[in-house]
């Protein structure tokens, strides 16, 4: 048996402002139907700027902040990397193109939205978007189920309460968020 430990994994360099802008711009270009899968893939699998657990933790925080979760993630990540200017660079890279495209799309939809073909195309895109969300949720849940603490029970209780019982989200979060925090704290003691 050897006393030498494996060398630590190399730490990726902190991205520059330009790296942040173009990373989020690339995510935006790839993110038809939702950008969460592409964000996770880039941060965790490609650039290794975050571990799967770090991504889940930051995304969980962003779920509790007001506003769109992925925009919150953009701001939090940019801020962690380069402070307020990093948050602004990431945010701009993420939102400039969609803002312009959605403005044009809104104008076009206002003009052509009553055409049946347009409605069918939009209805056909919905299953692909749902598939992306389900695939990303499965990837994000994998680390939770790998350590068999209280996380799977909280996950199932949340899915049951909101998805099956149709209880109000705010009430479910008001009960399960502190319960989850307490269970995680207790489990790690």
Report the principal-axis shape.
Answer: globular
Identify low-pLDDT runs: none
User: Whole-Å distance between the termini?
Assistant: 31 Å
Q: Gyration radius, to the nearest Å?
A: 20 Å
Helix content: over 70%
The structural domain count equals: 2
Oligomer: single chain
Class by alpha and beta content: mainly alpha
Number-wise, the strands total 0
Present the secondary structure layout.
Elements: H1 17-30, H2 36-46, H3 52-64, H4 69-112, H5 116-146, H6 151-164, H7 169-187
Verbal overview:
- It is built from seven helices and no strands.
- The protein is mainly α and about 190 residues long.
- It folds into two domains: about 15-145, no CATH class; about 145-189.
- The model has no long low-confidence stretch (mean pLDDT about 85).
Task: Describe the structure using short key phrases.
189 residues, mainly alpha, 2 domains, 7 helices, 77% helix
Task: Characterize this entry briefly.
This protein has 7 helices and no strands.
């Amino acid at each position: 048996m050897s006393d030498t430990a494996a060398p630590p994994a190399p730490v990726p360099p902190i991205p520059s402002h330009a790296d942040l802008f173009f990373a989020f711009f690339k995510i935006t270009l790839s993110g038809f139907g939702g950008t969460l899968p592409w964000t996770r893939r880039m941060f965790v699998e490609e650039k290794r700027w975050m571990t799967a657990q770090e991504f889940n933790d930051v995304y969980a925080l962003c779920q509790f902040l007001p506003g769109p979760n992925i925009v919150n993630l953009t701001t939090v990540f940019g801020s962690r990397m380069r402070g307020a200017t990093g948050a602004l660079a990431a945010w701009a890279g993420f939102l400039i193109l969609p803002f312009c495209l959605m403005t044009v799309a809104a104008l076009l939809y206002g003009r052509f939205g009553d055409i049946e073909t347009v409605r069918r195309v939009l209805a056909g895109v919905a299953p692909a978007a749902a598939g992306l969300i389900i695939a990303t949720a499965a990837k994000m849940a994998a680390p939770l189920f790998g350590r068999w603490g209280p996380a799977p029970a909280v996950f199932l209780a949340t899915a049951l309460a909101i998805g099956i019982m149709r209880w109000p989200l705010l009430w479910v979060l008001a009960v399960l968020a502190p319960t989850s925090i307490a269970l995680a704290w207790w489990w790690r003691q």
